């Protein structure tokens, strides 16, 4: 068995995956916001995200109530 050579099947990904941009290709390491986020302490980062979530919830709660655009027809 140790002397056997097996031929493996080589497959290539579809062309759409070959051209797909990877996450790390999109990061600009010289971007000041990226550097600030990277250097932020984990506790501070968590607090920042919590504040952002609270801000979004406040915006939702203070937004005007949307009404349905269709009317309900009652049978008479």
Automatic annotation (TrEMBL):
Biological process terms in GO annotation: barbed-end actin filament capping
UniProt xrefs under InterPro entries: Aldolase-II_Adducin_sf
Lineage: superkingdom: Eukaryota
Coiled-coil intervals: none
GO CC annotation: cytoskeleton; plasma membrane; postsynaptic density
GO molecular function: actin filament binding
Protein name: Uncharacterized protein
Source organism: Astyanax mexicanus
